[in-house]
Amino acid sequence: MISFTSFYQEIADDVLHHWLEDLPAILGKWQREHKHGELPKWEKVLKKLPEHPPVHLDLESEVAIGRADEVSESEIAKLTSLLSIYKPWRKGPYRLYDIHIDTEWRSDWKWDRLKDQISPLNNRLVLDVGCGNGYHMWRMLGAGARRVVGVDPSTLFLCQFEAVKKLAGGKHPIHLLPIGIQDLPAIDAFDTVFSMGVLYHRRSPIDHLFQLKNQLRDGGELVLETLVVEGDEQQVLVPHDRYAKMNNVWYLPSPAALMLWLTKCGFENVRMVNLDTTSLAEQRSTEWMPNESLVDYLDPNDITKTVEGYPAPLRATFVATKPYNPLS
């Protein structure tokens, strides 16, 4: 069974030790009440994955664990079969021994766009909110972070993450907690907090911004990526029903509006560092994610619009700083 004991042990003498007052009860409740029906099968897959640490590990230029010559052809076939049980794989790509997990998203492209726009992660304590299966967390670790914690309520993403971590040798300061940020005790401790692809799913985006702020230490940095629309600081799109076939999209602000929101929430040095229209090459169906993808969400006669007639996905990345509190 997936356990969080090692995480508790690691943070006992860390700045995150205050989490031990509440987090075990929160995760214990998840283990009792929120288990996915497929979890027993997925946990069996984890047990069958190889235990030995890889000789080759690259987290800086990609997420590459092991090489083909480290295992036999039969082991590769077995590993491919096991990892296929975790389909669909949405965030990546991963290179696991001789297996290329070509995920729905080219998440490496997003990382390449933002990595030089943020404060260096060397020796920083990092939180990734809505981390998916943890792809960007591995890149954060590869960029020098001393510890990376991700939160995402998806049980499948948790199992995908645990599979990659086991193949990577297991002993890395990186952990995924299957809860949302609203369940996470505020701690004012992280040097950098990422929220990528989350804000538009929140019914109260302002509350989400405050939740992110409450996890940052004074002087800490927020990296926020979200869907936006064109317009002035009062322009916000509220879809009537679905947006790009998603039924949980609430608010798509303009970049100017979001910068105003961040400023109103007390962030400083707010700036947009990237604005990019999502391309059909960046998000698409693959062997490892055979379901519908971006091309199915767009108007077939005009890909500048979604199937509902809204502007096609436009994503912006913002960086902001939590100010120092003179009373702290």
Automatic annotation (TrEMBL):
Keywords: Transferase, tRNA processing. This is tRNA U34 carboxymethyltransferase. Pfam families: Methyltransf_9 (PF08003). NCBIfam families: PRK15068.1 (NF011650), tRNA 5-methoxyuridine(34)/uridine 5-oxyacetic acid(34) synthase CmoB (TIGR00452). It catalyses: carboxy-S-adenosyl-L-methionine + 5-hydroxyuridine(34) in tRNA = 5-carboxymethoxyuridine(34) in tRNA + S-adenosyl-L-homocysteine + H(+). Coiled coil: none annotated. InterPro entries: CmoB, Mo5U34_MeTrfas-like, SAM-dependent_MTases_sf. It comes from Paraferrimonas sedimenticola. Homotetramer. It comes from the Bacteria. Its EC number is 2.5.1.-. The keyword Transferase applies. Belongs to the class I-like SAM-binding methyltransferase superfamily. CmoB family.
